Amino acid sequence: MRSPHVERVTVMTNAKITVCGKGEYCAAWRLPTYVLVTPARNEVGTIELTIRSMIAQTAKPLRWVIVSDGSTDGTDELVARYVAQHAWIRLVRSPERTERHFAGKVQAFNSGFALLKDLPYDVVGNLDADISFAEDYMAFLVGKFAERPRLGVAGTPFREGDAQYDYRFTSLEHVSGACQLFRRACFAEIGGYRPLKVGGIDLVAVTTARMHGWETRTFTEKVCLHHRKMGTGQHRTLMVAYKGGYHDYLMGVHPLWQFLRSVYQTTRPPYLIGGALLLIGYCWAMVTGPEKPVTPEFVAFRRREQVARLLQRFRRPLGGGVSA
């Protein structure tokens, strides 16, 4: 019988996870099977890095569906070359759209997801077409679902150049949309991704999972690299701050949380004006009263979480901030 004080050693392989206690106990269970969907719109400059990362994985998916969302830049031709070499990769093309909005990504995801319904998978993931990662990345993540029975959503931080979220101040319960893996039962229970034109699709999915009692977690032991650089011009940065505040209101952010977040943002580039615009965008939305795309239950749940995090933060020594 295993001693409760025996050191726990975990060994991952492509087929299973083995947990051993220094020779006293050894049990093995299968690594959960997984499938992936990647919506891609004109990603010829980055998607090959993602494909090469997936081909190198020690634990490969049952199937990976890449959905070309009306691409016109050669994305389809590039992906097709790899499809011809790897039977577990599929390419689907969606018709070109004249209207650009965030819901289009969900529509593309769903067209790929529909091709996976008959497969015996345990975990389904949404994978962006502009990231790369180490060869044990997927084995690490899907292994977490075997270790934690109530884990509903899992991911890692993403790094862009030298920039990465500081998880001393950002909740580990949020999972970045760059790579989100869902337990199959969790994804079904939340109804999948909601096609929100205003964005916030990833946030809504992860928060809704917690509303249903699932654990959501970012595991900082691994990272993925983001290769699409965001605009860095001053005008764009300021507009992003204003629109970010407006969007925070739509997503049900608590007013006190937003005020403190705006104050915190004044300590980061572009400093005072960025934090001010974040708060102005939120206040303008509060005054004009646009309809929120999320339910009152979602707003109430998110605000309860934010108040709880603030209370927890204020019980700690000063020096932290509110960044997400």
Protein architecture, described:
There is one protein chain. Helix content is about 35%, strand content about 20%. It contains 10 helices and 13 strands. The strands form 3 sheets. Strands 6-5-4-7-11-9-12 form a 7-stranded mixed β-sheet, with helices on both faces. A 3-stranded antiparallel β-sheet has the order 1-2-3, covered by helices on one side. The protein has a 3-stranded mixed β-sheet with strand order 8-13-10. Helix 7 (about 235-250) packs parallel to helix 9 (about 270-290) and helix 8 (about 255-265) runs antiparallel to helix 9 (about 270-290). It is globular. The termini are far apart. About 35% of the residues are buried.
As for the number of domains, it is 3
Q: Assembly state here?
A: single chain
Q: CATH fold name of the largest domain, please?
A: Spore Coat Polysaccharide Biosynthesis Protein SpsA, Chain A
CATH C-level class of the largest domain: Alpha Beta
Residue fraction in strands: 15-25%
Write the CATH architecture name of the largest domain.
Alpha-Beta Complex
Principal-axis shape equals globular
List the helices and strands and how they pair.
Blueprint: E1 9-12, E2 16-20, E3 26-30, E4 34-40, H1 47-55, E5 63-69, H2 75-83, E6 89-94, H3 103-113, E7 123-127, E8 131-132, H4 137-147, E9 151-155, E10 158-159, E11 179-183, H5 184-189, H6 201-211, E12 215-218, E13 224-226, H7 234-250, H8 255-265, H9 272-288, H10 296-314
Parallel strand pairs: 4-5, 4-7, 5-6, 9-12, 10-13
Antiparallel strand pairs: 1-2, 2-3, 7-11, 8-13, 9-11
